[in-house]
Design brief:
41% of the residues lie in helices and 26% in strands. The longest helix has 16 residues. The radius of gyration is 19 Å and the shape is globular.
Length: 294
Amino acid sequence: MNDYVIGCGSTVDLTPEHLKKINVEYVKYHFMLDGKEYFDDLGQTMTHKDFYNALRNGANPSTSQVNSSEFLEFFTPFLEQGKDIIQLCFSSGLSGSYQAAKNAAAIAAERYPERKIYVVDTLCASSGHGLFVDKAAELRDSGMSIDELRDWATQNALRMHHWFFSTDLTFYIKGGRVSKVAGTIGGILGICPLLNVDYHGHLIPRAKIPGKRRVTNEMLKRMEQFADNGYDYDEKCYISNSDCPEDAKVLADMVRAKFPKVREVLINDIGTTIGSHSGPGTVALFFWGKKRED
């Protein structure tokens, strides 16, 4: 096996057990509830159920990115062990952590000039970031070198598709993704906005669709439209949710029925970093497909 480290952030929205199984290391983002700071450690310190219950009860969340010092602290033990590193970062369109990782890598390169330290902007988020990292680990285990993996990651970042909807617009309104007027009217009419991550790694509203069933069907149509090999899609598909597992299961069952060759459909929790901005009630679909374009 290639002896280099794949790193990511807790924004992959996978479980600690999953990352351990695929031998990927992660750096922890930060979130705050009513002024108290926590590490996003993938639900170990605070369960995702407790986190979303706190939001429903009026807790005010905020987040902060991983800074350069933290990335340097994360990189250093591996470099001291004589290992090279490739850090697959959360989308630069949603956080400044990619640049922070680049800054840390530049410092580390001066201290460890014999080591390779690569930082890649995945332009991915949540379990789309997770699915991207999972594939990278597979490629490493198949014998791909760190240089080959860096090239693959750079060339394939825009092939990861992200489609989201939410039944609770409260936090989208707070974050400016949905206007207060549109959100109020949407709540009354049962509108579920459909969003995706675009070419630049930004989260963009795409449509206003009435009802969960209709918006779920629309997400499935987007997968039909963009997925590799169409109905013969045979890669993994990940689904994440912010404390609405029943809605995620409905979507998962529909994906399995429509794409019988799908390798795996895995349901994950949206973690505390992304959940601080989405709030409860969000379901997201991730799959490999055609290159994302504007």
